[in-house]
Model the fold of this input.
Amino acid sequence: MTAAPDEYPALYLKGIELFNDCEFLDASNTWVELWTDCHGPSRRYYQGLIQTAVCLHHFVNENTSGAVKVYHTSLDFLAPYRPKHLGIDLDQFLGELGGCLQEILESNERFPTESINPDLIPDLILLD
Done:
């Protein structure tokens, strides 16, 4: 059973909105506020979302080595919550995120020079 959107924390929803608007730094800062006050089972989930936003922030700003590092950290945080958590299909989202970053993830360069394809940036979509 999935919770109705009004049953999710407001900062969670605001972070999703900012993330989907490609405001990755603002999304991560919003989720940091939520994470700071969370002491329940979703605490590491929020850390994972923060990391995905930071990853894309780095990638958009051409810090590809930072993006790769934070991408792997985000997977570690989110893995225990797969396949779905708090209305998000993590398997789908992380698959799309990996596709977005595929060229830099596969690069053998220390500082990959690939640029981001805006069409491949994933959205966080709340399931019904």
